[in-house]
Amino acid sequence: MFKSGRIFMDRKELLHQFETLLERPAGSLNGSEALETLEQWDSMSTMGFIAMVAEHGVTLSPRQFVNCRTVDDLLNLTGIPKS
What we know:
Distance between the termini: 20 Å
Mean pLDDT: 87
Structural class: mainly alpha
Helix content: 25-40%
CATH superfamily: ACP-like
Number of strands: 0
Radius of gyration: 12 Å
Number of helices: 3
Low-confidence stretches: 1-6
CATH topology: Non-ribosomal Peptide Synthetase Peptidyl Carrier Protein, Chain A
Order of helices and strands: HHH
CATH class: Mainly Alpha
Number of domains: 1
Largest sheet: none
CATH architecture: Orthogonal Bundle
């Protein structure tokens, strides 16, 4: 999953970057939100998420998103532990 052994962000920062990707106000997501309820979550934002985490050394493929139902599910794909 990781290109390198380093993790460049913590979960809080990742959640904030995800809010920015979805053009949501800071602090508006806590992780428990169902992806289907986020009107901004679509195929383009999926690719944006893949690119966003790739900048931090995490490699994901679109197939890994199939079973993701919540924001936490997405964050779990990165391997960054919950704080």
